[in-house]
Amino acid sequence: MGTQAETRQPERKLTRKGQETRRRIVAAAAQLMYERGVTEATLEDVRAAAGVSGSQIYHYFADKQALLLAVIEYQTEAVLDMQQSLFADLDTMDGLHRWRDALVEYQLRLQCQGGCPIGSLGSEVAETNPEARLAAATGFLRWEAAIRCGLQAMHDRGELDGDPEDLALATLAALQGGLLLTQLQRKVRPLEVALDAMLNHIESHTRRP
User: Fold this and answer.
1) What is the mean pLDDT of residues 41-62?
2) Domain limits at 169?
C-alpha cells in the first residue's frame, strides 16, 4: 500500500463550490462508515448519499483509501471541535468534571449508540490498513495532547505532582474503554465509572493550598 502522499490526489486549490462538494462527499462517507463500517460503505453508496456523480468523487479522491483518510480526519476534527470549549478548562478539577459531565450527557443524547467515531474506525482498520491506523492514532494523539495541556498547566502551577503525560494517556484510555462498554451495554454507567475513577486518581495527585 502506498504512502499517504502517494494515495492522495495532488493538492489543488478548490473553489468555494468545490470545497463544499468535497466536504459533502466526506460527510456522507463518514456517516455511512460510522453506520455500516468501512468495508460495507461502498463508493456507490457514498455517491448516492452525497448526491454527486462518480466522476465528482474521483475528482477529489483517487480511490476509497484516500476517502477513508479524509473521513478519519473529518471525524477527528468533529470529535475535538465538540470538546474545544471544554479543553481550555481542563487545568482545574472543576473543569475536568465539567468535561466528564459533557461527555456523559452526549452519550445519553445518543442513547449510548455509536461509540467513539475515531475508535470505531481505528479498530476496524488497525490490522489491515497501516496508513489508516496511523491516521486514527494521530487523532488520538491530538486528543491526548488536549487533555495533557490542562494537566501540564496544573503541574506547572505546582498543583499537580503526578506526571501529566501518563495521566493524560490513562484518562484517554479510561474514556475509550468507557465508551466501548457504554456502546455495548447501552447504558452510560461504564463511562461514568471509568471517568470518575480516573478523575479521582488525578485529584489524589493534587496539592491543596
Assistant:
1) 94
2) 72-204
